[in-house]
Amino acid sequence: MSKRNWLVGLFVSLYVGMLSAGGVNSSGASGLNGGLSMYINAAEGGDISDRRLSHLQDYFQKRQCNIQVITAGHKSAGAFDADIVFMPLKQEIPAPFQKVFGLSVVDDQFLSASLLVRSSTGINDLTKLGGVRIAFLSPNSVTGFYWQKKLLHNAGVMLKKDLITFTNSNLGAMSLLLHKDVFAAGVATPLAKKWAKANDLTIVAESPRVETGGLWMKRGVAQRDIDQCKKLFKNLFENNSDRAIKKLVKVFPVWVDGFVSVAG
C-alpha cells in the first residue's frame, strides 16, 4: 500500500471513530464529546465581556455540559452557526433548531418598552421631549430604542443623532437619567416600573407588548447532552445560594427572570 493510500485510510478510520463516539453527528452539530458552541444575542442587554463569557463557559464545562465556545453580539447574523442559541425576543428560527426554553420576565410582567423622565420635571407628554438628550440601550434593541423611537415619531418628535446616547445596558441608561446626564431614558417596561417607584421617576409612554424569545438547540445533539445542559441553564436562575453562579446571569438581559420549559 502506498504511503498516500495509507494516510487516507487512517483519516477515514479516525473520522468513523469520531462518529461512533458522538464527537460529530449527522446534523453537523457537535456532540458533547466534541464540544458544543453557543451564541448569545445581547441586543436587549447583558454583560458579554470576555471575562463574563469565560466564567459562564467554565460553569458549563465543569458540570458535564461541554460548551467549549461562547460568542455574543448584538445582531442575529451568524448566530445559527452555533449549536445553542439565546435570543431575547421572538423571531423566526431555522428548522434545524428546537426551542428548549422560553423566558420568564421579572415580577411576572409582560415585556414592552418605556420612556422615563424624572418626576421633578413635571413632564407626562411625549411632545415635550423634542430637543432633549435621551439615553437608550443600543441601536439594535427593540425594547431599548426601536419602540421608543416609534412612539416619539408618532407624537411628532424626531430624534436628533447628536442628542442620542447608547449605553449598551438598561442599567447604564437608568444611571445617566438619575445622575441628570440625560433628560429621559428608554428601557424595558418591567425595569421602568421597578425603578420608577424607587427613584421618583415617571413613565411617559409605553409600547405594546413585545414577545420574548428563549433558548434553542440544534436538532441532532444527543438527548443526554440536551438534558444535562438544560438542567444547568435552569440552575443559573434557581440557585440563589451560590454568589458566583448568580453573577453569571448578568450575561442575559436584566429583565430575564429565568428559563421556562416548553412543551415537546
Task: Kindly list the characteristics that best describe this protein.
single chain; 264 residues; alpha/beta; D-Maltodextrin-Binding Protein, domain 2; 2 domains; six-stranded mixed sheet; five-stranded mixed sheet; 7 helices; disordered N terminus
Describe the structure in your own words:
The chain is of the alpha/beta class and 264 residues long. It has 2 domains: 154 residues, D-Maltodextrin-Binding Protein, domain 2 (3-Layer(aba) Sandwich), CATH 3.40.190; 94 residues, D-Maltodextrin-Binding Protein, domain 2 (3-Layer(aba) Sandwich). 33% of the residues lie in helices and 24% in strands. The protein contains 7 helices and 11 strands. Strands 2-1-3-10-4-11 form a 6-stranded mixed beta sheet, with helices on one face. A 5-stranded mixed beta sheet has the order 7-6-8-5-9. The longest helix is centred in the first third of the chain and has 19 residues. The termini are far apart.
Summary of the model, kept short:
This protein is of the alpha/beta class and 264 residues long. The protein contains seven helices and eleven strands.
Topology overview:
Layout: H1 3-21, E1 36-41, H2 50-61, E2 67-73, E3 84-89, E4 97-105, E5 113-118, E6 134-136, H3 142-154, E7 164-166, H4 170-178, E8 184-188, H5 189-199, E9 201-206, E10 212-218, H6 223-238, H7 243-248, E11 256-261
Order of helices and strands: HEHEEEEEHEHEHEEHHE
In total, the number of domains comes to 2
- Could you state the oligomeric state of the chains shown? single chain
Estimate the strand proportion.
Answer: 15-25%
- The CATH class of the largest domain: Alpha Beta
Distance from first to last alpha carbon: 52 Å
Gross geometry = elongated
Helical fraction: 25-40%
CATH fold assignment of the largest domain: D-Maltodextrin-Binding Protein, domain 2
Structural class: alpha/beta
Q: Mean pLDDT, rounded to whole units? A: 87
